[in-house]
Amino acid sequence: MHYGAGVFEGIRCYSTQKGPAIFRLKDHMKRLIKSAEYYRIKTFSIQNLVKGAKEVVKQNKFTECYIRPLVYLEPGKMGLETTSTPTHTMIAAWPWDTYLGSENLEKGVSCMISKWRRIDSKQLPVQAKACGNYINSIQAKIEAIENGFHEAIMLNMKGNVTEGPGENVFIVKNNELITPPLTANVLDGITRKSVMIIAREKGFKVSEKNITLEQLLNADEAFFTGTAIEVMPITKINKKKIGGGRVGKVTKQLQESFFNEVHGKGSHEEWLDYVDK
User: How far is Cα of residue 88 from the mean position of the Cα atoms in its chain?
Assistant: First the structure.
């Protein structure tokens, strides 16, 4: 806790006709274990983590909720050498609306380009969802709120677009979806991957390539993806309206398809872990 050496995940459970289902639960727990490995932290097996998440939802009688596994070091030992320190794993769950508000799913959010640059992979393992990494995100978020925006968008050390404080970024240009590659120092988002699959199945060209600030500001559409934020349209960046300040057709289509999937109305049944099974 003192040094930020913990790892976590954000996962959502959704209501379906077959009961509560956790979206891509095994993928999230695999990433949790991988994050822990970056910091030489040990945790439970994926089978036990999956079982634990389902049990928390079941015991709380939730039909929809946000789930937060957290792996942290045992108290009692001070210092920066952590490899021999025992760890604890907790899983919490609570009802939580779409991050930035469900009302903004229809009208979009405003963003500012943060003065804070996204941490670089030469500084910290950016693919680890580590507690300490998010100090960087907190600074960008506070800056955006203090300047009257919903959220921030961060650039990397080369000046290219990376992500929001806790979300991946997509732009749409001439019906092509573009998102920064992992080499731009973005998190390998699970919602990001899901939306890319959905978009390709719908016939859209999807590319992972560097996005300049100019390309971002001149996009036809833009949106965030993430477990907490789901698929959130971006309609304003700094003083520039994106898509005339309205949610674009492609974003709407992908948003609708994503919500169909998480509620068990899509074609990817394998993405759902039913709590009662």
Answer: 23
3-state class (DSSP) for residue 44:
coil
The reply to whether 54 belongs to the active site is: no
pTM above 0.90, yes or no: yes
Which structure tokens are listed for 130? 């580590």
CA angle 248, 181, 23 (to 5 degrees): 65
Task: For 7-59, write each residue's pLDDT tens digit.
Answer: 999 999 999 999 999 999 999 999 999 999 999 999 999 999 999 999 999 99
- Is residue 76 scored above 80 in pLDDT? no
Q: Which of 42, 61, 122, 129 is catalytic?
A: 129
Beta bridge partners of 94: 66
- 77 burial type by CB count under 10 A (0-12 exposed, 13-18 middle, 19+ buried): exposed
- Which domains are seen in the chain, by residue range? 7-96 (3.30.470.10), 104-262 (3.20.10.10)
